[in-house]
């Protein structure tokens, strides 16, 4: 649902293209995809971005003017993801940075490594693609705004892996979220990877204040809801996490809203034991993501019924 790429510094070097003029076409085309649907691995624990912004001895920027603009927007949008340095010494040229990217891929998979024409000639690895020929890369062609997945916690974790590593806020919206239900008994596993983040991201959980459907529907009061969320409260305390829980007028849609992307989760975040119980998740456009987040803003007191905090104080 969100891709992670490594960029080799020579994508910002006109002389590394088959024709220097192509940089003016390739970088803007790449930029829009990165802003909407990806994060960039900041190799060498952040030294990659510093290298791309460095200047030569005369004080002149080492790379194309679009490098500074792209990196600034990626950083402000939380789309630069520092990754520990794998090589013994910090790379000093594009070939070295490409080898560094490939080494990180052996530890944590990348969607792709995007290089300029010159670097691509030195690396035959399929995961390395020329910025001039991205449409011929299988991993670029397979980009999609939706995914069909099994309703199992492991499938959710795999799909959300990059988001769980990178996003700074998580808003789970599911009208049926109930830790006492068998289908939601593993929900805490979706949050457990966040315990490794320092500081941990902000977590919000939003559900309907109603319980059940049709004539069997009931309307528990806040004390009963607190009891129903007690097991998740205990799990979050064990993990060192906290979450705000909100109960709203009845609704039916299911989403995950983060600071990076928003998702429509067709069947919510429950897991079933039924084999191949498939559901669809789809990425929202930026404006729709913002509108949905606004609908579940806690200041919308007309629809909000209850609110409490669980996990660590």
What would you note in describing this structure?
The longest helix has 15 residues, at 23-37. The protein starts with a strand and ends with a strand. Helix content is 32%, strand content 21%. It is elongated and about 70 Å long. It has 313 residues and is α/β, with parallel strands linked by helices.
What percent of the residues sit in helical stretches (DSSP H or I)? 25-40%
Percent of residues in beta strands? 15-25%
* Number of β-strand runs: 13
Query: From N to C, what is the helix and strand string?
Result: EHEHHEHEHEHEHHEHEHHEEEEHE
Looking at the structure, what is the overall shape? elongated
DSSP summary: helix tally:
12
Biggest sheet layout? 8 strands, mixed
Which structural class matches the secondary elements? alpha/beta
End-to-end gap = 32 Å
Low-confidence stretches: none
Q: From the alpha-carbon coordinates, what is the Rg to the nearest angstrom? A: 22 Å
Question: Can you list the strand order of the major beta sheet?
Answer: 6-12-11-10-7-8-9-13
Could you give a quick summary of the protein structure above?
By secondary structure, this protein is α/β, with parallel strands linked by helices. The protein has twelve helices and 13 strands. Helix 1 (23-37) links the parallel strand 1 (3-7) and strand 2.
């Amino acid at each position: 649902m969100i891709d992670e790429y490594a960029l080799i510094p020579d994508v910002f070097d006109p002389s590394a293209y088959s024709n220097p003029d192509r940089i003016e076409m390739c970088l803007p085309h790449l930029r829009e995809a990165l802003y909407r649907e990806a994060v960039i691995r900041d190799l060498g624990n952040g030294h990659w971005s510093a290298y791309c912004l460095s200047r030569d001895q005369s004080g002149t920027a080492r790379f194309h003017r679009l490098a500074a603009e792209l990196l600034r927007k990626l950083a402000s949008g939380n789309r630069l993801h520092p990754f520990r340095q794998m090589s013994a010494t910090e790379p000093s040229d594009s070939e070295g940075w490409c080898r560094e990217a490939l080494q990180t891929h052996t530890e944590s998979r990348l969607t792709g490594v995007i290089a300029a024409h010159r670097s691509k000639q030195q690396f035959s690895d399929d995961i390395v693609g020329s910025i001039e020929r991205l449409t011929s890369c299988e991993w670029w062609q397979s980009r999609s705004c939706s995914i069909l997945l099994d309703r199992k916690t492991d499938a959710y974790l795999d799909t959300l892996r990059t988001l769980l590593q990178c996003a700074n806020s998580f808003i789970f919206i599911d009208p049926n979220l109930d830790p006492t239900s068998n289908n939601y008994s593993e929900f805490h596993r979706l949050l457990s990877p966040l315990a490794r983040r320092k500081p941990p991201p902000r977590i919000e959980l939003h559900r309907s204040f109603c319980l059940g459907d049709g004539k069997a529907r009931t309307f528990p009061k806040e004390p009963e809801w607190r009891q129903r969320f007690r097991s998740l409260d205990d799990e979050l305390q064990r993990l060192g996490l906290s979450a705000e829980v909100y109960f709203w007028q009845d609704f039916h849609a299911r989403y995950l809203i983060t600071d990076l992307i928003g998702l429509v989760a067709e069947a919510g975040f429950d897991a079933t034991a039924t084999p191949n119980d498939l559901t669809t998740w789809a990425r929202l456009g930026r404006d729709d993501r913002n509108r949905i987040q606004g609908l579940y803003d806690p200041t919308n007191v007309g629809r909000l019924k209850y609110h409490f905090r669980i996990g660590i104080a």
